[in-house]
Amino acid sequence: NVDLNGLVDSAEPLLRRSLAETQELVLRLGEQAGPVRADRHQLEQVLLNLTLNARDAMPEGGQVTIETGRNGQTAFLTVRDTGVGMDQQTLRRAFEPFFTTKEIGQGTGLGLSVVHGIVAQVGGQIQADSEPGRGSVFTLRLPIAAAPAASAGTSGADAGGPPPGGATVLVVEDDETVRRMTVRALDEAGYATLEATDGQEALDLVRQRPSPPDLVVTDLGMPRMDGHQLAQRLRADHPSLPVLLISGHVHPDPQPAEGPPWPLLRKPFPPEELVRQVAEMLAARPTPTP
Known about the structure:
alpha/beta, 8 helices
């Protein structure tokens, strides 16, 4: 069971970092907004997706307002922006898979279709309202759960595995939503994190640092240099550097020509599983010789 107000409060720092300096985040949380029966991390993904869409719709700046409340046996969560808005033809197609109004390379068109799927999975509904020049409003309506809400947060200690001990993890992912959610899970578990949007950027970052990170989490399918190529290059430069591959596509697990195989975590994965696997890989690193 998830309390919507606790969810928004927990996600607020991440949402604020996602917006530009000329964009303002306003929270209007009702006294009773749940609990709803859902996966907390999936709802976080919904909230982040809608906030990133609002950000992209306001290139000249503006305001994103997130509201929660309750109407009978239904809780609602609304994300409202003051952006460019959509005409009716675009609005009718907003939740179609792979439909996007963004330029090539700036979006896959899967964000809103994923949001729609997550909301439908928990028996809820999502409605979009928009007009050109008047912004957009996305409203989620979710059935109220009967039992008390669970805690909104999960600590790194609860996820299993040894404490981070100041370890630094580099996250390489071209999908902004997945990257931010992955970084957040590791931040909450106590790790220091670095970010890169593709393999070449990650390789440059590692080579510019005086010492490599303690572990790399990388997506497989990325432009310029994919995760498999990045893992090979990193192993050539740093043979003992652990690399965790993540992917949502079904294909044979890529295996290195030499050395131990790279672990592969399939998307979508719960943050607790990511943190557990990272902790196990760090614990299994060979002890450096003095």
